[in-house]
Design goal:
Blueprint: E1 2-4, E2 7-9, H1 27-47, H2 76-89, H3 100-111, H4 116-122, H5 128-135, H6 140-154
Antiparallel strand pairs: 1-2
Length: 160
């Protein structure tokens, strides 16, 4: 959900445009989301009619009502400020963006030997080929191990 002037617009979240995409997450993420839902339900009950439901997971709270209401999208400037605080607390580089976590996840999964088809599907890329073209360059060590393994199976390592 993004703010445009005096209104809000739902922006597509997936790279492939599938509004009904199912993205599988770990139980720990589900626990965080369930905790957020409980906090937001309590905030909704506390604010009553001042809460305007936009069906958002992380809606604007009622700490300081915006246009007399809560429940809408987060303010982008406040989100940026919160990110800067968290980034500092986590000792991340100043140029580390929230989106960089997505890239780190894909890279880490590939380096751990996870299935590129599953990784590609989970991050909603249009093909595993795209995922590998975009992220495969960081797998030099894995490529070297693969080459050495293949050479060993063929008996070429004994020629060195």
């Amino acid at each position: 959900m993004v703010e445009e002037g005096n209104t809000y617009r739902l922006r597509k979240l997936t790279k492939d445009g599938d509004d009904n995409a199912v993205i599988h997450v770990d139980q720990s993420v589900i626990n965080v989301l369930e905790g957020q839902k409980q906090r937001q339900d309590a905030e909704r009950a506390r604010l009553g009619s001042a809460w305007v439901d936009h069906d958002l997971v992380f809606a604007r709270d009622g700490f300081k009502l915006y246009r007399g209401e809560a429940g809408g999208p987060q303010d982008p400037e406040k989100m940026s400020a919160r990110w800067r605080t968290l980034r500092s607390r986590l000792h991340l580089p100043e140029d580390f963006r929230i989106h960089d976590w997505r890239h780190s996840k894909v890279t880490n999964d590939l380096e751990a030997g996870e299935n590129p088809v599953e990784i590609s599907a989970n991050v909603r890329h249009h093909s595993p080929g795209y995922t590998m073209a975009r992220y495969g360059h960081s797998r030099k060590d894995g490529a070297r191990r693969l080459a050495a393994s293949g050479a060993g199976r063929l008996g070429l390592s004994s020629l060195v």
